Model the fold of this input.
Amino acid sequence: MKSFVSRRNAEAIRRRFQPWNGLHLSLVSPMRTKGFCAQSAVHQYDESGRKLKSFSREQEMKDIRTLLQYCIDNKALPGAKRMYIRMIEKGFEPGVFQGNGILNTHVKAGLLKDARQLFDRMPKRDEVSWTIMIAGYANGMNEHEALQLFLQMLKTDVKPDSFVFASVLKACAGLGEGGEQVHAHVIRVGYESNTFVGNAIVDMHIKCGRMKDARQMFDRMSERNDFTWTTIITGYVQRGNGREALKMFSLMNWTDTKPNPFIISSLLRACTDMSDFEQGECLHASAIKMGFEANVFVGNSLATMYPKIGRIKDAKKLFDEMWERDVVSWTTMIVGFAQSGHVEEALQLFGQMLKTDIKPNEFTFAIVVSTCGSLAALEQGKQFHAHVIRNGLVSFLSVGNALTAMYTKCGRINDAHQVVDEMTIKDVVSWTTIIMGYVDKGYDEEALKLAFQIQRLGIKLNEFTLSTVLTACANLAVLQTGRQVHTLIIKAGYELEISVNSALISMYSKCGNIDYAGQMFSLMSKGDVVTWTTMITGYAIHGLGIKALQLFEQMQQKGVKPDSITFIGVLSACSNAGLVDEGWYHFNSISKEYGIKPIIEHYGCMVDLLGRAGQLDEAEEFIKKIPFKHDTVVWGALLGACKVHGKYDLGKRVADRILQLDPQCAGTLILLANMFAADGRWSDVANVRKNMKENGLKKQPGQSWIEVQNRLFTFVSKDSMMDYIQNHGKSTPC
Done:
C-alpha cells in the first residue's frame, strides 16, 4: 500500500509541477522516491510558487498535502517539516493523523528538537501525539523533559493511556525519582490492573532500588506475562538476592509461563555469584531440555560459571559448541582461562579471536593486557598495546589502567608513567598503580614524591594508595612523613579499613614506635590474618619475642588461621628471644598442624635461631636436609653466626658454599676477610682482597637518610650533610 501511495504521489507531483519550469521534475519518478527526490520536489514547489501567484487556495492545499505525504513516505524529514509548517502558516489545518505521522518519523530519527517544535505547533493533539513525544524523550535519555511534558499533558483534556504511563514510568526509572507519584496517579485513574503498565511499575521500582515495592506490585498483578516474570527475577539477581530469584523461578514453573533464555542466563549468574554450583548445574540441565544451551546469553553465563569451579575444560567445550558467539562470549572465555591460571591459553584464544570477524572491545583488551602483566610477558604486552592503538581503544580508562599495570609488573616503570601521562582520562587507580610499582621496585622516595604531587593536583587518594604510601614510609623509616599520611587517613575516614590499619601498624613498627603500633592494633575490632601477622612481626623485629608469641596464641584463640607469612614472624620472634625449643615446636607445627608447606624463609629463620644459640653444627646439618635448592640467604645466616661465635673454619666452608651460588657476592668476601683478620690470618685476608680487586667487586655503600624541615635527604659515609643539602638538594618532600 505504501509503495502505491508513493507512486501515486510521485505521478501527481510530476503532472502538477513539470510544465512550470525546466528543473527536470521528471526525476521524481516511481523508481526514485527517496529523500533526495522528495527534497527536490519541495524545492521546485517553492520555486514554482514564486513564479506563479495564481494558485487557488483549494489547489494550494491539495499540493501541500500531497507533497507532505510524499516526504513522510520517503523519510525526507526537512521537507516534511517545511511542508507541515507551511500548511499551518497558510491556515490549512493538517489532520491529526498526518501530524502524528510526521512527528513519529522525526522521533524515530532521533530529531527530538525538531519533533518538539512540530509538536508545539500542532493545532490539535490526541493521546497518540503525546505518547509519541513523551516516549521519544524517555527512550532518548531525556527523562526530565518526558516528565515535564507529562505534567503539561495532565493540564489538558487528553487523558493518558497505558502507553503514556509506561513511557513516563520508564523516565522515572532513569531519573531514580518521581516514580511513586506517577504510580499513585496510575492507581487513581484505574490503570494499575493493566499488565503493560504493571510491568512498567515493577521495572521502575527495581531500577530505583525499591525491591520490596516491586515485589508488592508483582503480587497484586492479576495477570502476568513473560516480561513480568523476567523483570522480577532479573531484578532480584541484579540486586544481589539470588536466593529469592531462584524462589521466583520455582513459582514461575507452576504457571503457564515458560522460562526464556534471559531468565536462565540471569539465574546462572546468580548461582555463580553465590557459589551455588550444584544449582547452576541443575539450571544447565534445564537449559538443555528447553533447547537454550546454544543461546549466546545462556552460553556466556555457563562459560562464566564453570571456570569458577575449576572446570575450565567444560567451559571451553561449551564455548566450542556455541552456534553463535559475540564479543562477550570470547571475552568471558578469555577471562575464564586467565582467572584459572591458564594464562597462555587465554592469550592463544585471543589470537584466535583476532582471526574472526568479531572485534575485541575495551574489556577484552584490558583482560588480555592484564594477563600479559601476570606473565611478565613484555613483548606480547607491547604487541597488544599496538593493537589497542590501532583499534582506537587507548582512550578507555580500563585499557589505560591495564597497560599501566602491565608495564609496572614487567619492571618498566618509565613506560607505565608515560602511559598514564598520555591518558586523556585518568583516575586514582592509574596513579596508585605507578606508586605501587615504585614501591615494589624499591624506589620508595619516588613513590612519596608522586603521591604528594598528585595530592597537590587535587586527586583524592583512596585506601589502597594510602596503604602503599605507608609502605614506602615504613621502608624508609620516615616517621614524621608517616604521621602526616596517618593524618590524611583520619581525615578521609580510612583508619578502620583493615588494609590501611595493617599498613599503619607496619609503618609505626618499622619506624621504631612499637607502642603506637600496638595502639593501632587494639583499635581493630576484627582484624584479618594480615593485621595479626603485621603486629606479631613488629614485636619480633623489636626483640619482644615473648609478646609476639603471646599474640600468636591470642590469634589462634580468636579463630584466625595463620598463613606461611605469620610463621616467619613467629620463628623470627623465637630467634630474637633465643627460644630454641619453642622454635622447633612451631616449625614442626607448620606442616603437621596447619597443613602449610614450609618455604625457604622458614628454614632461614631456623638457621638463624640455631646460629644465635651457638648450635652451628646442628644448623649446618639442618641446611643439608632442606628439601629444595638452597639460596645465599640461608647460608648467609649461618656465616654471620660463624663470625659471632668465632667458628672460622666452618665460616670458610660456608663462605665457599655461598660463592658457589653467587660468585659476585662482595658482602660474603668482606665478611670472610673480617673473620680471617679476627683470627690473625693476614695472608688469607690479603688473598681475599686481591680476589675482590681482580674481579672488580666492591662493597655497596650503605645509605642513610634524615628528615630536615619536612624533606628527606639521603647520604653515604663521609658526606658533609650541609654541603650535600646546599650542593645536591636531592630530597623527597614529606
User: Anything to note?
Assistant: The first strand starts at residue 703 and ends at 708. The mean pLDDT is 81. Residues 1-124 form a domain with the Serine Threonine Protein Phosphatase 5, Tetratricopeptide repeat fold (CATH 1.25.40).
